[in-house]
Amino acid sequence: MSAAALTSVPVAHPQRADWTPVWFLLPAVFVTAAVVLFPVAQTVWLSLYDYVIYNPDGSRFVGWGNFVAVLRDEVFWISLRHSIVWIVGVVGLQFLLGLVAALLLNESFWWRGLARSLVIVPWALPSVIIGLMWTWMYDFNVGVLNDMLLRLGVIATPIAWLARPDTALGAIMLALVWQGFPFFAVTLLAGLQTIPADLYEAAEIDGASRWKRFINVTLPSISDVIATALLLRTIWVANSLDVILVMTGGGPGYATHTLPLYAFQRAYSGMEFGYGAALALVLTVLLLAVVWLYVKRASRDIAR
Amino acid sequence: MERRQFLKTAGAAAALSTLAKPALAQSGTTVRWWYHFDNPQNSPAELVAKFEKENPGIKIQAEAIPWGGGNDYQTRLFAAIVAGNAPDCAMVRLSWAARFQQMRALEPLDAMVNAWDGRSDIAFNIWKINRGADGKQYYLPLQYVVIYLYYRADLFQQANLQPPKTFEEFRAAAKALTKGDVAGFGMRGGAGGFDNWGPFVLGGGASFDKGGMVSEKAIAACRWYVNLMREDKVTPASAPTDSFRQIVDAFKAGRTAMAIHHVGSAAEVIGALGDKVSAVAVPQGADGKGWTYFGDESNAIFAASKVKDTAFKWISFLSTADNNIELNKLTGQLPITTSGQAKWTGHPKRFVEASSASIPIAASLPDHPKTPDFISRVWPTNMQRALLGEISPDDMMKAIEQHFHG
Fold first, then answer.
1. What sign for the dihedral angle of Cα B345, B346, B350, B356?
2. pLDDT of B69
3. Which of A95, A98, A171, B319 could form a disulfide with A161 if both were Cys (CB 3.0 to 4.6 A apart)?
4. What is the DSSP string of B109-130?
């Protein structure tokens, strides 16, 4: 073998190696393109058309028309306002409840294993079941909540929780808080278990109170987990509509309309797929800020 | 298994499956049929087996589609048509007809119906209601219900009241029976509640014709209906979002004295209240005019089907005398055939009679592409806002007028 042939070997090898990850990734890229990118592109395309599903022949290109109509739509602004209350309220309360649950479950007590299993139950139930269950708990005539409050003397007459505009959104938020807090509990518990016991021992020797240990040791140690969980949950909650759909269908009136629900209603009830797509895209753009934060954090973690 | 051997086996299996395909295709015709029953545990398997036994070579692929208040079923069906994956035939409703027609999705059945023996067993007025706007027959009637008024016979007797025949008698009875935790009328302001509103507002003079929702009479009728809750306070506070489940359960629990629904809930209501419950036609206006909802369910064949004649064999089988009775036992509705109605024992007589008594004023909603959206979004949203005082009944009627006529 000549010297030239020998020297060419190291050049050829890295070239072949460079393509290997591409081939491995290709199926995943293909699947993602088919199930994510294609529908997204289709939604963008649809949003530029006045497309009503039962009148496909009457479809016409309207450009930004749907988006202009969205901005002029009173129900869009009502839904946006409710979405903000919904996201902040639900995610905030889920986080607080989840954090408290995680701290408790991190303590040592004899039935801790059982408690850790039970806390998962709300998270494991399908959203439709959660919606139906809470609807019956809130029921005006036969609901357990009114019955309990009446027996305790807290209220004098039953309250129509889901039929009053001042209580309906809060009542649904409570149901979703109950469903979603286990996500935070489990995620934060996993984070808590990674904190070395030495840190607490050192803080205790230094005379730090329980509260100070929580503020100066616990929270900084799980800050990455908290941030990731908050970002993920915000995206999920912002897009969730199943529980609202089951419990009130967006009513009474517009009292429980949120953006995804409104988009769903226009698309699936009115079958106005063009307008529904425009509403969904506006929601997507608003969520991009949150996604951007998530991606930025994920990139930072990878860079470490 | 060795890699080479596995590849050989897989290759042979693939080759065999290709060869087997023509044989399977030749062995018979498959008809895809979409249906929904209120009770999803009920299955049409026995009817399918009977049909397949009578018609060797035809296989029925019956697919249960979730109803979801009508929205789920409807959306899936329309989406399937657009996607080119519609079933050969499906259970459909009159209120969807205009949309189907706009899409040219339905196959006219006139020739097949004319050649069908069972045609004369279905009353002429039912054929008429089911006829398309262009005069062609696209729907093969399958079953029906008519909205009527359930009332607590025992409470009426105690209060020395007769079942109401007019709006004012209804209002007076509702007021008299509203006591303690019992409301006189279990109003349905949530999904599907247009069939509670219709008897009083459409029966009170409103119509779906241009200007028909904003006439003086129509607006006055809507004010009257909304005031049952806002001023007369004869309904539960939950009325704005109460739907089928809530009104039926409240009635069963003795929390309401009257409720509006159809024979489909009779078994459930009797199970809870027995002889304490009865039914009559919905009240009518002082001028004797009335309106109630003809709850239809038919079968249609889709234009894209490649097995239209075979599909007709199946849907006509379901609309034929005894088969239709068996089907209605599964759906809880009423047989569409004259012979089936005579033999029907599926519901106590008083409820079947209340249904029959309601037929003279029964009507369907307009054959308009926007009717489904009226049912599922426009009506409930505006009704709820009116019941809560967020908008006036006048504004509600204007919104409905605008929805249909711009």
1. negative
2. 67
3. A171
4. -HHHHHT-GGGGGB-HHHHHHT
B191 contact residues in A (CB cutoff 8 A): 249
The residue of chain B nearest to residue A136, with distances taken between CA atoms, is B246
Looking at the complex, does the CB of residue B75 fall below 8 Å from at least one CB of chain A?
yes
Structure tokens at B135: 């005069």
Dihedral (Cα; B302, B303, B306, B312), 10-degree rounding:
50
Q: Model ipTM?
A: 0.77
Please name the member of A56, A253, A270 whose beta carbon is closest to the beta carbon of B390: A253
Query: What distances in angstroms separate CA B355 from CA A272, B33, B279, B327, B333, one per listed residue?
Result: 36, 28, 9, 18, 11
Rounded to whole angstroms, the Cα distance separating A52 from A59 reads: 7
What one-character DSSP code corresponds to residue A55?
-
Chain A residues within 8 A of B253 when measuring between CB atoms: 141-142
CA distance A46 to chain B (A): 14
Please, what sign has the CA dihedral across residues A167, A172, A178, A180? negative
Q: Would you call A244 an interface residue with chain B, using a CB distance cutoff of 8 Å?
A: no
Q: What confidence tier does A79 reach under pLDDT thresholds 50, 70, 90?
A: very high
The rounded distance, in Å, linking the Cα atoms of A4 and B338 is: 97
The strands making up B256-261's β-sheet, listed across from edge to edge, are: B183-185, B256-261, B148-152, B277-280
A195-224 pLDDT per residue, tens: 998 888 898 888 888 889 999 999 999 988
Contact B145, B355 (CB under 8 A): yes
In degrees and rounded to multiples of 5, residue B383 shows phi and psi of -60, -45
**Taking CB atoms and an 8 Å cutoff, what residues of chain B touch A251?**
190, 240-241, 380-381, 384
Q: In angstroms, rounded to a whole number, what is the distance separating the alpha carbons of residues B137 and B236? A: 43
Average per-residue pLDDT in chain A?
A: 88
Closest residue, chain A, to B248 (C-alpha): A141
* Of the partner residues B75, B99, B239, the one whose CB lies closest to the CB of residue A268: B75
**Rounded Cα–Cα distance for residues B250 and B242 (Å):** 10
Contacts of B78 in chain A (CB under 8 A): 53-54, 271
Cα distance between residue A100 and residue A98, in whole Å: 5
Partnered with residue B29 across adjacent β-strands are B58
pLDDT digits over B31-43, tens only?
A: 999 999 877 889 9
Helix (H) or strand (E) run with residue B146 in it? strand B139-146
CA atoms within 13 Å, Cβ hemisphere of B348: 14
**What are the chain B neighbours of A56 within 8 Å (beta carbons)?**
82, 103
Evaluate whether A171 touches A259 at the Cβ level (below 8 Å).
Answer: no
Condensed to tens digits (0 to 9), the pLDDT of residues B276-331 reads 999 999 999 888 889 999 888 899 999 999 999 999 999 999 999 899 999 999 98
The chain B residue lying nearest A261, using CA atoms, is B377
pLDDT above 50: residue B15: no
Instruction: Write out the two tokens for B312.
Output: 């007709």
Euclidean distance between CA atoms B181 and A262, whole angstroms: 35
Residue B44 CA to residue B151 CA, distance in Å, equals 33
A250 dihedral zone (left: phi>0; alpha: psi -120 to 50; beta): left
* CA atoms of B278 and B350, how far apart (whole Å): 7
Return the number of CB contacts < 8 Å for A and B: 98
Is the distance from CB of B404 to CB of B366 less than 8 angstroms? yes
Contact B304, B84 (CB under 8 A): yes
